[in-house]
Design goal:
Chain lengths: ~400, ~400
């Protein structure tokens, strides 16, 4: 070993030989762009998949792999992959399975940017036929074409909180030789397991409830078929929407409390929904846990007992009313996100801003809807804040 | 930046975050050792409003965590330190000087005990010991010059409970302060300051942060005591870095949920262990057999803590086999994390205590301490039950 200072500082401190007696409690954060190899042949073997190993940060990372282990198990899948954001996961999953000339069947009520992805990227720029259909009220059977390859929906639709029967859609999709992808961001794994209901892939913006602390962005794909994940992983290497190991480390940390956080989100949301249902300024309360909800039966049949998610939407009648209420909140905040430990709201122009006004109208999204992400605060405090804020409605 | 050469620009460009009006949903992390001022007037003004200058003095993330702890413990002010021991030593040395006397509980975390028996005498501080579960014994051990009383909410490893209210009254009657280590319980369960204590200490490393990935400590107290402790901390340098504060703040967001879950699990596990033929005794305040069951019921909220200990046969081979047979609960030199961990007092925390003293405390070779985690309770009970089969 050379004695030069710069040589020492650049080469020492690279290997951590953990004494066999000590296993770290928490997975290390592997901030690594690349890995070293003894010789070219070994590198080639790892590259060809003949030997186990890590090559380059865009292809895989040990911390991210620890995260994937948890995610795969939680959704009872065969394999998973993680990306830099929910849109990263959605775009990679879809683009790995669809090519120009294919047809996709998409529920017309989904997150605005997801909608835009199908319309602006898949349809307008890459020659994919896209049908936006109302999965809840229409018979999707009639919309299948010989070239339909994929069916796409959300477990709990954003922002209407409709619950679509995954079992029925999966059956129809498979009967036509199609795959079913389900974005389970609003519902979350403790509430619903789409793979168990027949979905081929479940997607998440892990930014939301999975992380739950408003501090990282991440996207997740879990599949019941390992080969499907291998395929996505391969395609993803070309696009590179990779997840930082730092964010993966924080997401692992968040997942440790997933079950207890979601249990509390659901308890609070149920009480909040009941409160809104009785409120004279609320035209409609949209929450699958309410017996009055058209989605209640489907939720009872496909969700974990007693859990209906942390998202509640209320129709206040007009955009004016929504704005007046937002301005009067003392604790609740207007945030273009959801699923954190604090209660936040979003209006549809924000959450579905990527859709045109016509598209929003066709999907039946009223500007009077206030979408609420119910947090983990004391329910009395949440209700108190809404109570005093809604007094602003004239 | 265009008027400077590249070597200057590369250091100064993008030094400041745009959008000062923006309010991030999650607190930013201030990884900076110092803050800038425009001139000397600006600097003096900053000192005046106690703004941010050099971060050993004050830094935004540490102060945010301090505010959070004051809120949770119901105190006027908090000091965040590098670890639990930093909080303990800073708190006590702010209250005691050479020639002073303190009275400590008999059963304590091992290293706190060492601070009192090995370090304090060298500083001229006299330390007496008494069994704090017996208020009469505490009264009897008081001297006119006893200035500080020290105890833990739940003792290690016999899991006994102290009547904080009664001991606080005794301390104040003698013109003394009561310092309480709330680590095993946290403010989710009990707020010592509400019961009369003068300082509440936490090793935030444990249940508060709850994710086994940061070392941090805190003391929460009155403004008057805080001022003395803060001045001392500046000189001893027992501060903590902003990243740790940020992580711990994040960990505390789910503290109440985690502690509740862990306590529910502990009560169920305690019940299951008590019924097991290989277990001769279980120490958990939820059990009616516990000497302070009624007291715990009265002073603890929502549960009885997530720490328990139990006694297996005094058999080293058997205990080793038991530990190896456990499938996910495991041996670890820490507590308060999301996974259930075990530790063996005789070979670890109380290794330095003479056998005679240990027996007096009730610590035998077969005693195992458990920090109950937030796993599924059925899985937890099943794991212990199958592992205890080694004693059949």
């Amino acid at each position: 070993m050379k004695n030069g200072l710069m040589t020492k500082v650049t080469h020492l401190g690279t290997r951590i030989e953990m004494p066999p007696a000590s296993t770290p409690k928490v997975p290390p954060m592997h901030m690594n762009a690349a890995y070293c190899f003894e010789d070219a042949e070994t590198l080639a073997e790892v590259n060809r998949g003949e030997k186990d190993g890590y090559l380059y940060g865009r292809t895989s990372n040990p911390t991210n792999d620890c995260l994937r282990e948890i995610l795969t198990a939680v959704d009872q899948g065969a394999a998973s992959q993680v990306y830099a954001s929910g849109m990263g996961a959605i775009s990679m999953a879809v683009m790995s399975n669809i090519k120009a000339g294919d047809h996709v069947l998409v529920n017309k009520i989904i997150f605005g940017t997801s909608y835009k992805f199908f319309r602006a990227e898949m349809r307008d720029r890459f020659g994919v036929e896209v049908s936006f259909v109302d999965f809840l009220h229409e018979d999707i059977e009639q919309h299948f074409r010989p070239n339909t390859k994929l069916v796409y929906m959300e477990t709990i639709a954003n922002p209407t909180c409709d619950v679509i029967d995954i079992r029925k859609v999966a059956k129809a999709a498979h009967a036509h030789g199609c795959l079913l992808f389900v974005d389970n961001t609003f519902a979350t794994p403790p509430v619903c397991k789409p793979l168990a209901l027949g979905a081929d892939m479940v997607l998440y913006s892990a930014t939301k409830f999975l992380c739950g602390h408003s501090d990282i962005l991440a996207g997740v794909i879990v599949a019941s078929d390992k080969k499907a994940i291998d395929n996505i992983t391969d395609v993803g290497h070309s696009y590179g929407p990779i997840m930082s190991p730092f964010d993966a480390w924080l997401l692992i940390r968040s997942l440790r409390t997933l079950g207890i956080r979601l249990a509390q989100h659901c308890r609070n949301a149920m009480q909040a929904a009941e409160y809104f249902q009785g409120h004279k300024q609320v035209v409609r309360t949209l929450y699958p846990g309410l017996a009055s909800s058209p989605s209640h039966q489907t939720a009872l049949e496909t969700f974990q007992k007693g859990m209906f998610g942390g998202m509640v939407s209320i129709d206040l009648g007009s955009e004016q009313n929504v704005n007046d209420v937002i301005r009067n909140f003392k604790m609740t905040k207007l945030v273009p996100s959801l699923g954190a430990f604090s209660t936040t709201v979003s209006d549809t122009k924000t959450s579905h801003g990527a859709m045109t006004p016509e598209e929003r109208k066709r999907s039946g999204l009223s500007d009077g809807i206030l979408r609420i992400s119910i947090g983990l605060e004391e329910i009395e405090d949440i209700i108190e804040d809404f109570d005093q804020a809604m007094k602003a409605i004239r | 930046m265009t008027q400077f050469k590249r070597a200057t620009g590369i250091l100064h460009q993008a030094a400041y975050l745009k959008g000062k009006r923006d309010r991030p949903e999650s607190a930013p992390l201030f990884l900076t050792t110092a803050f800038n001022v425009d001139d000397l007037d600006d600097l003096e003004a900053l000192y005046g409003v106690k703004g941010y200058t050099y971060i050993r003095t004050r830094n935004p993330n540490r102060y945010a965590l301090a505010d959070l702890m004051s809120y949770l413990e119901g105190g006027e002010a908090s000091l965040i330190c590098g670890c639990g021991m930093a909080a303990i030593s800073t708190a006590l040395l702010a209250l005691l000087g050479s020639g002073d006397r303190m009275l400590s509980d008999l059963t304590l975390y091992g290293e706190t005990q060492e601070l009192f028996t090995l370090v304090f005498p060298g500083l001229g501080i006299k330390v007496d010991f008494a069994d704090f579960t017996n208020p009469e014994a505490v009264k009897a051990a008081l001297r006119p010059d006893t200035k500080v009383l020290y105890t833990e909410t739940i003792s290690n490893p016999m899991i006994t409970v102290v009547d904080i209210e009664a001991v606080a009254a005794i301390a104040h009657g003698n013109g003394a302060k009561l310092v309480v280590d709330n680590t095993f319980t946290t403010s989710s369960v009990i707020k010592p300051l509400e019961l009369g204590a003068d300082v509440s200490i936490n090793s935030l490393t444990k249940f508060a942060n709850g994710h086994s990935d940061a070392i941090c400590g805190s003391l929460t107290t009155s403004q008057a005591i805080w001022t003395k402790a803060n001045a001392l901390q500046q000189l001893l340098g027992t501060t903590v870095d902003p990243f740790t504060c940020w992580l711990v703040t994040r960990g505390i967001r789910t503290m109440d949920l985690r502690v509740q879950k862990a306590m529910d699990n502990a009560a169920r596990l305690a019940k299951a262990l008590e019924a097991h033929p290989a277990v001769s005794r279980v120490n958990h305040p939820s059990l009616e057999s516990h000497p302070q069951h009624a007291l715990a019921k009265r002073i603890f909220k929502h549960g009885f803590g997530a720490m328990l200990s139990f006694v297996m046969p005094d058999d080293r081979k058997g205990i080793n086999a038991f530990l190896r047979k456990l499938e996910f609960a495991h041996y670890a030199m820490t507590l308060g994390g999301y996974r259930t961990t075990l530790s063996h007092p005789v070979t670890s925390s109380h290794h330095g205590v003479p056998e005679e003293e240990r027996r007096k405390m009730g610590i035998t070779f077969g005693l195992m301490r458990v920090s109950v985690g937030i796993e599924d309770p059925d899985d937890l009970i099943a794991d212990f039950t199958q592992a205890l089969e080694v004693f059949k």
